[in-house]
Specification:
heterodimer, A: about 475 residues, mainly alpha, two-stranded antiparallel sheet, 20 helices, 2 strands, B: about 100 residues, 3 helices, about 75% helix, about 0% strand
Chain lengths: ~475, ~100
């Protein structure tokens, strides 16, 4: 392990940009509270972070800060994704926070800092940075969920999320500690080497540690059976916060899970495969069935996100590089389709909060209904949308790994969940409107939805633009 | 005096179990939160013990980070409890029933 140098700072440029912008916004918070400065600043910082990620990626993969983080294609892929999600959520927040009483600059500072946590998590190759990155995300997320302090449902969601998440963090930390005690190291590659060298793969204590870490990570991404916080947190939080949790947090958690699976605990561990297959199968099945009963739009999207996390984890069950890159593709496309759907929900305001609000939308606002239909088709996994490509790559990697039953279950469940997505489409196109025509969407919101729609469409037609770029660690 | 790895692990697992039991058995938000703190301190104990046993500083560094994160978590958690208490004075976990299914 060699020490850190000043040159290492250049490798974490995207994180430094976001942190710097967050500090500036805190300093001037009072002056800019009711202006649009925080949004503009956040979007600019996110764009700069994307550019910085590209620039860093153009160099060789290397590790920094004495092997605590690595800067490789995998990390940069997810950093670009996190920064894109941050920018889109900031654009959604302009309309989404109207009248909520949330302090705008603090809100954007928390978004920025949570994104820094995500970027650290996706580049972590050591248990220390892995833990700190995940905690930075959750600490910021607690406040974001509870930021509308005057709303009792927001308080309730934040308390529930806080209690369960801190419990899950403690479980994961105990797993990390046992792993450290058994292997004598905290770096992912060191753990893998030590497990192979000392023959720990079947050690009951090591299996317990693996189960604890997997449980903690499953909680972070909201996979069944650790999903109970997801619907409550999404429904209680403001809609843009729910969109952020569904996009950035999930992508970062999946990235961390991918690295733990592929590097630390190794593809050869049968116990890990069983855990991942169990998580994937349960998430897909429970998410797809419970989504059918929902009438609240945010809760519906929450259960849909649980099912989608199950599909994404399916890619990792193979434990191969191809499987990991399938999960990367899934995470990328899912972020944009879910942000787009949340964007439409935000744009329709109070009307968009329940399923009934979508009645007759197509005759009143054909454009809005059209993009919503696109996102619904993508969430279902219909060809020519990115959702189909994403499902195809993960299911084929599960088949390649020999989990045919899991693949069949996934296909069946995607048909089951199609009922609820298509029910919204039927409401929009085949019913007479009952409520007045919704107001025009503000420009910021339209831009965000348009970007999400373009990625969803282009990803469905020309998936190679993204899949070629998704390289496993 | 040498303390074996198993003693360290056994003690911290016992403490962790006490915290876990407290979290699952209590219905008061603050007490549940304190139980989580007990769990985190059990982890710290094991980290420092392993670190001392293996003569490797990394465990102690991680324990310091865990303490810092636990402090931040305590600040946020108590803030959330205060916000909840303004809207629903004296609310326990049993009263958090607005969001379900």
């Amino acid at each position: 392990m060699n020490g850190a140098t000043v040159a290492d700072l250049g490798l974490v440029l995207p994180e430094l940009i976001l942190t710097g912008m967050a500090l500036v916004l805190i300093l001037v918070a009072r002056r800019i509270q009711s202006t649009s400065v925080p949004v503009v600043a956040t979007v600019l910082a996110a764009a700069a972070a994307v550019a910085a990620s590209w620039w860093v990626l153009s160099k060789e993969p290397q590790s920094a800060f004495g092997g605590l983080i690595t800067v490789d294609g995998y990390a940069q892929f997810f950093k670009v994704l996190v920064a894109a999600a941050l920018a889109l959520v900031a654009l959604l927040s302009v309309k989404g926070l109207e009248g909520s009483g949330a302090p705008r600059s603090e809100y954007h500072v928390l978004l920025l800092l949570a994104s820094v946590g995500m970027m650290l998590t996706v580049s972590a190759v050591d248990m220390v940075t892995f833990y700190l990155g995940l905690e930075l995300i959750t600490l910021c997320s607690y406040i974001l969920v509870g930021i509308t302090v005057d709303r009792p449902s927001s308080n309730e969601a934040a308390i529930k999320y806080f209690l369960l998440a801190s419990f899950a963090s403690a479980l994961m930390l105990f797993g990390i500690s046992i792993t450290y005690g058994l292997t004598g190291t905290t770096s992912f590659s060191g753990v893998a080497a030590s497990i192979a060298e000392r023959g720990l793969a079947d050690d009951p204590l090591q299996l317990a540690a693996l189960a604890l870490i997997a449980a903690g990570l499953a909680f972070k991404i909201g996979a069944v059976p650790f999903h109970s916080w997801v619907p409550d947190a999404y429904q209680g939080a403001s809609t843009p916060v729910a969109a952020f949790l569904a996009s950035g947090s999930k992508a970062a958690g999946l990235a961390a899970l991918g690295r733990v699976v592929v590097i630390a605990f190794g593809p050869d561990s049968p116990a890990l495969s069983i855990i991942l297959v169990g998580l994937a199968a349960l998430s897909v099945a429970v998410g797809s069935v419970l989504v059918l009963a929902q009438t609240d739009m945010k809760r519906l999207l929450a259960y849909s996100s649980i099912a989608h996390v199950g599909y994404a984890v399916m890619g990792l069950t193979a434990g191969t590089d191809a499987g990991a890159s399938a999960t990367m593709t899934y995470a990328f496309f899912y972020v944009f389709m879910t942000l787009g759907a949340f964007g439409v929900v935000i744009g329709l305001g109070a009307r968009g909060a329940t399923l009934d609000g979508y009645q007759g939308l197509a005759s009143q606002r054909p454009g809005v209904a059209g993009v919503m239909l696109l996102f619904l088709l993508a969430l279902t996994g219909i060809p020519l949308t990115s959702g189909f490509v994403a499902k195809f790559v993960v299911i084929s990697s599960a088949v390649g790994a020999g989990y045919v039953v899991l693949a069949v279950l996934a296909v069946v469940c995607s048909v089951v969940s199609a009922f609820v997505y298509m029910r919204i489409a039927v409401l929009m196109y085949m019913r007479e409107p009952e409520s007045p025509t919704p107001a025009r969407f503000p420009v910021t919101l339209s831009v965000a939805i348009a970007i999400a729609a373009i990625v969803t469409l282009v990803g469905g037609v020309l998936p190679r633009l993204i899949t070629d770029w998704a390289v496993a660690p | 005096m040498t303390i074996s790895m198993n003693t360290i692990l056994g003690l911290s697992a016992l403490l962790f179990g006490i915290g876990m039991f407290g979290f699952l058995a209590r219905r008061n938000i603050i007490l549940m939160f304190i139980s989580v703190e007990v769990m985190l301190n059990a982890v710290n104990l094991s980290l420092v013990g392993f670190s001392w046993h293996m003569e490797d500083p990394r465990g102690q560094v991680l324990a310091l980070f865990v303490i810092a994160v636990a402090a931040a978590e305590a600040g946020i958690g108590l803030g959330l409890v205060i916000a909840l208490n303004r809207n629903k004075p004296g609310a326990g976990v049993g009263d958090l029933t607005e969001l379900k299914w």
